Amino acid sequence: MAISPSASGVSGANALASSLRSYARDHAVHLLVIAVLAAYPGVYAVAVNSPFSAEAVALLPRVETMVAVLYFGLFAVSFDFVSGYTGYLSFGHATFYGVGAYLVVLTANGKIPLLPASTPFVLLLVLGGLLAVVFAVIIGAVSFRLSGVYFAMITLGFSQVLYVFVRDWGYLGSNPRDGVAVTGRTEGFEIGVPGVDSLSLAVGQLTGDTVELLGVVHLTAAEVSYYMVGIVVLVCYFAMQRVVHSPFGRTLVAIRENEERARAIGYNTFYYKLGAFAISAFFAGIAGGLFAGYRRSVTPESGFYFLTTGDALLASIIGGFGTLAGPLYGHLFDEGVREFLSKGGSGGGLLPYLRENVGQGTMETVVYNGMTVGETIDVFLNGRAALYVGVVFVLFVLYVPNGLLGTVRDRLILSDRDD
Amino acid sequence: MTSVVLALSPFADGIPLFLDALGAFFRPSTLFGVLVDGLAKAALYVMIASGLTLIFGLMGVLNFAHGSVTMVGAYLGGLVMVLLVSQETGDPTRLLAFLLGVVVVFTALAALGGLLEMGLIRPIYDRPPLSQILLTFGLTLILDEFARIVVSFYGLQPISEWQAALATKPAALGQRHDLVVASVSGLKLFEIACGILTVVVIWAFLTRTRYGLYVRAGSEDSEMAAALGVNVRRVFTVVFALGTGLAGVAGVLLAWDQSWGASVPLAVETLLPAFVVVIIGGLGTFRGTVAAGLLVGLIDATMTWWFQNAIAFTGLPEMTIFLVLVVVLVVRPQGLFGVEEVGGH
Amino acid sequence: MSLLSVEAVHTYYGDSHILEGVSLEVDSGEVVALVGRNGVGKTTTLRTIMQLTPPSKGRVRLRGEDITGTDTHDVADAGVGWIPENRRIFSQLTVEENVHVAVPEGRDVDAARERAYETFPDLREHRYRDGGTLSGGQQQMLAIARGLVGDNDLLLVDEPSEGLAPLIVSAVADALAATAAETTVLLVEQNLPLALDLADRFYVLDDGRIVDSGETSEVEESDERLRRYLSA
User: Fold this and answer.
1) d(Cα B182, Cα B179) in Å, to the nearest integer?
2) B226–C73 C-beta distance less than 8 A
3) What contacts B267, CB < 8 A, 6 or more positions away?
4) Cβ–Cβ pairs < 8 A, chains A and B
5) Count of domains in chain C?
6) Confidence class of residue A7 from pLDDT cuts 50, 70 and 90?
7) pLDDT at residue B230, rounded to an integer
8) pLDDT for res B4
9) What ipTM was estimated for this complex?
10) Is the CB of C84 inside 8 Å of chain B's CB atoms?
11) Contact predicate A314/A72, CB 8 Å
């Protein structure tokens, strides 16, 4: 994308035109993606009532799942923001997600001094983000003295200490090992302008608001949650995108490419890295808050645990490490496969589809050694998404190191050069 | 942290209780018990971690799949023993079954490790070190889920310990034996013996064999070793195979230990302590791994005693171990015995 | 047929083009010096021959056989020894073990060691010490000894006098002269008097290209012909 400084006048103008084109296209892509995401609940509703209902239910993620894609996608994006852009693998990133999530749930249960249980959710999200920043500054100040594997390990160490802590600290709830649920607050967590009821809508599976507009638009609780969470995620994404395209973001990339050189040019790389870590933690905290607000509960495993970071890593690699938006698509893929192969089979996926649409005879046909088709599917497919996602992950590391979005972008840039 | 202390009710109830505990802790029988317990834990930690450290030292690959290999080893070894041992089988035969399990597991998993290295890891040595972490992380997802499939297929609960494998333990290991000032469990003594044997065997391999010499030379400067005619790539494959084989062997022993046991979560339960031990010792130094294993084992045993007897915080041992990791990395990033600049960028 | 022939090799480090078509020949029994300023690609030339940094274009032949793109250990097995800059002794291996690594598989290790100790009696004295505890001169002796025990027909020697006190340099020079009597040497050396003294022929490398070559008997170190490429 860089415009060569030595370009002559004519090719300079060409380069300018091409960079303008690519700018317009970048934003066209953004608009397109936003439009598709905004239309999704409607498309889903139409599709499941169409003649291809069974196929649509089996293949398309439910709107509830898409809410999870959004908030966890934001967490994965924030992980990528620091790991993909600076090259420092933040293996304890779940800490910040957990901090945001626990703050929401504990405040709602009146466990946080000075914060009333009825604190507006939007304020809690920001406070969760800021608390995550505090953690990030403390952890980062120590950890950024190290690099490579050691950095990954010390951040992992911090997050595991905190994981054990929230898992076993009796103050948090009656049975902290199983997590903490919101018990002290019956009203929903509202996203919007605090204090203005007409401009706020509650999220949540059971406590979410529904919307009726002019008798034409009917939005279920899941759809309302989807749009409200989506707005927050969108704002956060654009904020991070601004940072990435700012001089600050370019310095981060310079650090990733060659930290020695960045230092030699005169950048205090330590503060840049710490800054990136703090920013990333802020958005991870918000993502955690959204998660807790929507689910109204949190477990030590869903925040703080290192495999939660692992899920973000998975999303980043499949979507594209260092592409910012990529992890969102990566996580969509992950959740999509998981739901398609879900064990329970409620709300769509392969199993209910087969049960309803394939004859009993086929399902009971013996494949091998007394095992029927149905049992084979049950053993090797249902609930086995991790296996297939793992295989895809390994294939991506080996053959698609730039991930989905990175590869698409490379193709586009190449075709841009060709014309 | 003050709020933690306040929340720990026995702690808050009074200093006298704490002093009582302190007195009880320094009784010879307690100290001896904690020592044996700590050495047994240390033996397990060293067994779990030594393959990891060999692989990292030579290739710079932090193998995230290491714990999964231990888990597979536990199941495979458990299977061998369950097949060979019935209720009436005597102790010597049970030990023989264990030995056979070790041989089978080592062979099978070393072969698996060799294949993985040649097929998947070799193509990406020249990529940034993160790629190898990512690749092996992907392998854990696959291995763990695969194990879950196979185990559930045979009607076992993947998340709880495999009781049938635990039951193949010789009776003598299940009992307590009087030793010096306290009675200690036979299994702990057996674990200590296995740990010592493992350390001796690896040490002899590294210092007394030609391949061991190549491993040490290659760990320090693989380019120079290649220029002196050492087929470094073959050494990589062999060490990866040995490392995964060792991880599996540790699993066979864990299949007998009630507090571990063959289960799918064993993969994560062993991976994290293995990381801690390897990092504290200094990535890639075998000597450091042994020392760190002892340190972590003894701390773990001490903290376990305190949690059982004085401080009602279940996570105390685990949290202390990770705190030690963080503190060591802060104070001495290259680990206790590590050389600087290994494992950085 | 030359023992070693390097034919128009181009070698890159990442994006930097280091060697831009280097060609040189070394015949059996010769000592050939490769001289030039810092950073012109002398070390890279040796690394390219060892296939540690394989060339992107051009060929490297050993006894006429193309070795371009083969593994480094195969080059070593074919009888090429590399005595690198900074010596790169295995610091945590003893002197004995350092020598042992260099002995080809299947050869008598004790006999090989004995040969090394006869050439460098100092090493016998320190054989149980870790390589890292040796002095610079001793490390250089050990590095040369590793080259000797490898059954090599050709030794690539990189800056053997670098960082050594003058007295030690002369001892190293003697060791090299003794080595050169037995085998063929391609020598990279900043110390021009030493290089001209040891070598039969020379090549001058500048900015990734060979710019001059000839017999050492034709030139003196003060010659304009050499000085323009060597003084900074």
Assistant:
1) 6
2) yes
3) B67, B68, B70, B71, B140, B143, B144, B147
4) 126
5) 1
6) very low
7) 95
8) 46
9) 0.93
10) yes
11) no
**Cα of A191 to nearest chain B Cα, Å:** 32
Q: Does C71 touch chain B (CB under 8 A)?
A: yes
Question: Token pair for residue A413?
Answer: 């840039």
Across A186-198, average pLDDT: 77
pLDDT tens-digit profile of C75-128? 999 999 999 998 999 999 999 999 999 999 888 999 999 989 998 888 999 999
Q: How many CB atoms lie within 10 A of CB B273?
A: 23
- Could you give the angle at the alpha carbon of C64 between the alpha carbons of C60 and C65, nearest 5°? 70
What's the pLDDT band for C181 if we cut at 50, 70, 90?
A: confident
Contact B49, B278 (CB under 8 A): yes
Chain C residues lying within 8 Å of B225, measured CB to CB:
90, 101
pLDDT tens readout for residues B65-102: 999 999 999 999 999 999 999 888 888 999 999 999 99
| Block residue for tokens 């190293």 | C172
Which of C88, C93, C102 comes nearest B216 by C-beta? C93
Amino acid present at B207: T
Range of the domain at C164: 4-230
For chain C, what percentages of helix, strand and coil (3-state, to nearest 5) are there?
40, 25, 35
Residue C2, chain B, CB below 8 Å: the answer is no
pLDDT tens digits, residue range A265-277? 889 999 999 999 9
CATH number at residue C39: 3.40.50.300
Are B and A neighbours with ≥3 CB pairs closer than 8 A? yes
**Of A301, A378, A394, A400, which to mutate for an interface test with B (greatest number of B Cβ within 10 Å)?**
A394
Q: For residue A190, is pLDDT > 90?
A: no
Q: Which residue has the higher pLDDT, C76 or C220?
A: C76
C86 sits in the region (left: phi over 0; alpha: psi -120 to 50; else beta) called: left
- DSSP state at residue B310: T
Average pLDDT over residues B19-28: 81
Nearest of A27, A14, A143 to residue A86 by alpha carbon: A143
pLDDT at residue B42 tops 90:
yes
Measured CA to CA, the distance from residue A62 to residue A342 in angstroms comes to 12
Does residue C231 contact residue C35 with C-beta atoms inside 8 Å?
no
Count of CB atoms situated within 10 Å of the CB of A247? 7
**Is the pTM here over 0.90, yes or no?**
no
Mutate to test the interface with A, among B325, B329, B330, B332 (most CBs of A within 10 A): B329
Q: Is C77 on the interface with B (CB under 8 A)?
A: yes
- Per the rule left: phi > 0, alpha: psi between -120 and 50, beta: everything else, B281 is alpha
